[in-house]
Amino acid sequence: xxxxxxxxxxxxxVAVTTIAFGIMRSINKHLDRKWRVQQGGPGHEPILAxxxxxxxxxxxxDELRDRLVELEERVDFAERILAEGKRPDELRAxxx
Length: 96
Prior knowledge:
Blueprint: H1 2-38, H2 44-59, H3 61-84, H4 88-95
Helix pairs in contact: 1-2, 1-3
C-alpha cells in the first residue's frame, strides 16, 4: 500500500512538471516571436494578442506550482513513513 502512494505521488509530480515545462516552452517560443517582431518583422498584431493570452495562462501557473509543492511534501512524508517501517494500522493507532 505505501509503495502505491509513493508511486502515485511520484507520477503526479512528473505529470505536473511536464505540464510546467510545456508551458514554459510555449512562453519561450512566444517571447522569441515577440523579439523578432520588435526587430521589425511584419504582422505583429496577432503575435502580441497571442502573447497577452500566454501571459494570462502564465498567471494560472502559480496554482500548478503550489500543487507541485504540496505533492513534494506528501512524497517526503510518505518516504519518512516508509523509512520508519510503520504499517498503516500502526499509524492509525498512533493518531487516535
